[in-house]
Amino acid sequence: MTTFPSEDKIKHVAETETSFGNRILYKMCEDYPRNNDPEIVKSKLWLIGRSYAAALERSQKPLPTPRDNLYDAVAQDIITSLDESIQRLREKDLPHIITKDTETVNQIFSLHREFTEILQKHTGIEKRSLASKYLHFHLPKYVFIYDSVIKKELREIYPRTRIKWNYLGKHDIEYTNLVLKLLRLRDEINERFGIILLPNQLDRLLY
Asked: Looking at the predicted structure, is the pLDDT value of residue 162 above 70?
């Protein structure tokens, strides 16, 4: 069974830079933070999706939107529905998410849900992992990545934990449960060792 991460492991993650490949993706989204240009949005979707084995077109069943129009259609919906919400979160310029900041946490959950609805409309699949990864590289201090390995590790750290939450609105329960456990882990690490880990660092700690 996975135990609570050791102080040495936590310090190592906190002091170690992320991979070169991830730094390229962060730089891309830092240099092109807006999602209002179809060609740039399509390129970011393709690069992030392929880098994380979460390609937009990856599906074992027929896609509602034809493959030759898939990236164009999804990019247009991102431009129309998500760009302004992403920018509002960026403008908060917080050093990290505060668990009790329900307004910001709700914004993140709502943004992720809207993205999964766009992806489901065009692919027939929620693709919550792709949604979280795309948003993470635009909002690295705020958005946690959804991953089955991370979910399994958290389940072993908190095997019988049911986290109560008071975040308003209709959200993706799978994603909210993962994030709330990650926030609990981050807060417990801070209480024990005085270290606040960002989403990417928590990802590397558990992976």
From this structure: no
